[in-house]
Amino acid sequence: MPELRIHLPEKYLPEQWYNVQADMSTPVPPPLHPVTKEPLGPDALLPLFPMELIQQEVSRERWITIPDPVREILRLWRPTPLVRARRLEQALDTPAHIYYKNEGASPAGSHKANTAVAQVYYNKEAGTKRITTETGAGQWGSALSLACNLFDIECKVYMVKVSYHQKPYRRSLMQMWGANVVASPSEDTNAGREILARDPDSPGSLGMAISEAVEDAVGREDTKYSLGSVLNHVLLHQTVIGLEAKKQFEMVDDYPDVIIGCAGGGSNFAGLAFPFVPDKLSGKKIRIIAVEPTACPTLTRGIRHYDFGDVARMTPLMMMYTLGHDFVPTAIHAGGLRYHGMAPLVSELYHQGLIEAKAYPQNPVFAAATLFAKTEGIVPAPESSHAIRAAIDEAERCKREGRKETIVFNLSGHGHFDLSAYEAYMAGKLEDYDYPEEKVQDALARLENL
Ligand SMILES: Cc1ncc(COP(=O)(O)O)c(C=O)c1O
Fold first, then answer.
1. Would the CB of 242 count as within 6 Å of ligand 1?
2. In the chain, what are the domain boundaries?
3. Does the domain made of 75-109+239-448 have the CATH classification 3.40.50.1100?
């Protein structure tokens, strides 16, 4: 019988993060100042981030040492298991091998804790007393609350309003770890008040919540800001996922042909995929697929352009695939995938043709999640279920073509706080949303006028 759960001994918890920037033939275009539109020097980011994180943002070193206190905390749940989804394979009657990396094993329920611990550690070292952030699905807010609690730092979370109401227990979890949570747009910031004045019923978006958290951080000496995705240092911290997975594949003498991750801002996808990029560059035939919702199709329908990371145009401009910083996605249940932009590093690799992208509406995604829950037992986060949908489609292709490929996807989180979404799905109440061509043209016009 083949091993189902491939456990890596704790001593193999990675000692270094892998920095894909070292292996990219063309560097990512630099971020630009939001007002002057000139390339941004490291000092300009100091009101928001501690210097160590800014240095990681621009580093082209291939390997960056993980500090011992960070590894000490990661050991609470890492290495996470790589699991062979045999029952799913059997249900699909596919010759493919399907594996998933279970990042839902973290105490906060997702991969987000990997970077939260690192970011809070560097803030603590730099003397930060308080950290602000935004959260969509609540996964990032929970992860940051956990990490702030472990390092004894105050935490304020601006939670996208639609998720705040859909997920009251995520809120309780953050509060249990000591965070102060408000629904965004809120009355606590100028950005929030302006949005509410225009649209009192605004469902909120990640772009709006980022504006609020950034404004709060720059307005206070003792406070810094923390972002759960998109930035280079966040993606770097997530590479523990792929580094562990590579070792786990060695243990069972297998290797992936297809690597899949859902992509909101790009961090869990990058975490699994980036450590495999050097193998692809040196000739291995691997397909790497980022999966997104059709309601927010950043890679598949977006435009590669310099754009802001937030609605209020406070963040630096980044070169990325974007739907426009003022795009407000429909309130689909995969709240963590409702972001208008994509990590510059993921965008660059997509632009260079090293990765592929695919988009799905929510009903087929929830159908895949249900099959996964019925066969493997785990209720997945709606975000991760996009990756499951793509993995199932790849396994079905393998069946049609009679190919025994190895497929791995990132189970970026569990869905224990998403049961209202599953309830809506089972009651047939989920709507599928498209992104019409007029919106592409509209986004292009708005971006050209930036
Ligand atoms: C479980 C889960 N997966 C994926 C994502 C998407 O983020 P990213 O693309 O940065 O991994 C989120 C974001 O909140 C999430 O909660």
1. no
2. 75-109+239-448
3. yes
